[in-house]
Amino acid sequence: MDFVFRLVSQLGPVAGMVLKAIFFSLLGIFLLVAFIVTRRWYRARYFRRLNARTFALRSVWDDLVAGRVPAKEWRLKPLDCDIVEAILLDNIETATPDQLQPLLSCLRNSGLLDMRIREARISGNWNRRTALVALGRTRAPEAVPALAEALDSTSEETRVAAVRGLGRTGLPGAAVPLLDRLVGNELKAPEHTIKNALANCCRKSPGVLISYMNKSTGQTRELIARVLGEVANAELGDELMILAADPLAEVRASAARALAAAPPSIALPALTVLVCDDEWFVRLRAVVALGSMRHQGRVRPLIRALCDRNRYVRQRAAWALARLGPQLEDVLEQVVDTRDSYALQAFVSELERSGAIERVIAALPESGSDSSAGNVLLDALNAGRKRVEAALVSAAAAGSR
Question: Could you give the CA distance from residue 128 to residue 118 in angstroms, rounded to a whole number?
Fold first, then answer.
């Protein structure tokens, strides 16, 4: 070492600085490599322990959930605690109602649920958001108050985590704090996040939304109506009839979507009126709902929609009519009777796309090949063939130039 220092002093100050820079660079590289190797060794050791403890806990899992393995044997060990909580939450998300109660009992009796509730109330931002998401996965009613408190946080990320947590519980009671703040214009979160959370919470009890519809106005009323359109069931028929006459077009459109789940005796008259609505997207939703029904009375309003001035409404009506199976010949005659060329064009095009055109043509001799409906259909197909041939000739001519 003395030789090195003497050599550096003999080479001069500049060379000495260069050698020192090289030395410190090599030292830094060595320390970095040592850190990487040490970190990899530590992580490999951690994952070996994790796998070993997971296997050990899985081997006694049924006894652990049933309480035959005392919680004190694993609860105060951080690694075991994390493993058990992760497995419990994964099982809770896929559990049936019969399987859910033992898992929740284990979560409660071990204190894991209380620990997460405490973290959701007093922890910092990152730990709090992690606790909120975990609470949502528990599907436990005790988690709702802590999640509701986080809705008033000053941090937008925390509020979003709370909304998602409430939605993941899937509990009708979790929708109440969301709706209370939404109606009072106190909920500051992205609209799609709120909509998804409310849909998850109200899927089993859509009636919760009806009372709040009467308290809301403007965009809030439209948002609640969109959620109601997704989760409505047959029990809401009378309420949906009222919403079908709402002054807001978005609410009428959502009511049309929801009426697809209502009994035909209630849905069909309302949808027949909505097919003639002033707004095209309301008419479109009504046509989609009619297409999903299985009732003979839907044919007449669908044919009316086939003559709509909006192209999307015509296409959707044609899609529904082209899938009526044995009724296609009668439908074709009714479409021809409308004397609407756009309606006929849309219906024939949809017959071709659905592959039903051959069956309709084959059935024409049985109903009379000289019938006006058959002649009109053949004329439409010939006209279409001529237009395709003309387009191909034009394309070939343009390519030759």
Answer: 9
Burial class (CB in 10 A: 0-12, 13-18, 19+), 10: exposed
Length of the chain: 401
Looking at the domain 107-231, which fold is it? Answer: Leucine-rich Repeat Variant (1.25.10)
- Residue 93: predicted pLDDT: 87
Tell me which amino acid residue 119 is: E
Q: Hunting for tokens 């279409």 — which residue is that?
A: 384
Read off φ and ψ for residue 24, nearest 5 degrees.
-70, -30
Alpha carbon 20 to its chain's center: 61
> What pLDDT sits at residue 378?
54
Residue 70 region, left (φ>0) first, then alpha (ψ -120 to 50), else beta?
Answer: beta
Q: In the chain, which stretches have pLDDT less than 70? A: 1-16, 356-401
Q: Where are the alpha helices (DSSP H) in 139-233?
A: 143-150, 156-169, 172-183, 191-202, 207-213, 218-231
Distances in whole angstroms, Cα of residue 22 to Cα of each of 7, 10, 15, 17, 368: 15, 17, 11, 9, 98
pLDDT single digits (tens) 40-85: 999 999 899 999 999 999 999 888 888 888 888 888 888 989 999 9
pTM of the model: 0.76
Six-digit token string for 145: 């108050």
Residue 245 neighbours by CB under 8 Å, 6+ apart: 252
Domain boundaries, the chain: 107-231, 244-308, 322-401
Quote the pLDDT of residue 389. 40
Q: What is the dihedral of CA 186, 188, 189, 194, to 10 degrees?
A: 10
What are 241-262's pLDDT values in tens digits? 888 888 889 988 998 888 888 8
